[in-house]
User: Fold Glutaredoxin domain-containing protein from Brassica carinata.
Amino acid sequence: MKTMQGLRNFTNDNVSLDLTFSPHLSFDEEETSESKIERLISEHPVIIFTRSSSCCMCHVMKKLLSTVGVHPTVIEIDEEEIACLAVQAAPVLFIGGACVGGFESLVALHLSGHLIPRLVEVGALWE
Assistant:
């Protein structure tokens, strides 16, 4: 197992960050791309896979989700890992382990009124 190294705890008058080991910040070097992606999808109720966190569509997806009170996990992946998702383009959003799709699918879900109930259903948002 690898863990994030070189991180220090941070404390000031208002905030205390504990950056000690977390199983969500580790990976097994022998874990396949497919199993790693499946594990991440199952561990996070709302997750976006993207080629780059600076991707404009990824940014807009995060912004839309944050306006309704959800802050998704964003994972940068390479071309090989994108192929494991069985989609042709990134970014791609998963809610509650189910693939929603890209930006257009997220907007359609929101405009249809189904986004918030789905986020509540998977425990990512409270009513």
About this structure: The beta strands are 10-11, 16-17, 46-50, 73-76, 92-95, 98-101. The chain is about 35% helix and 15% strand. The helical segments are 33-43, 56-67, 79-84, 103-111, 115-121. The radius of gyration is 16 Å.
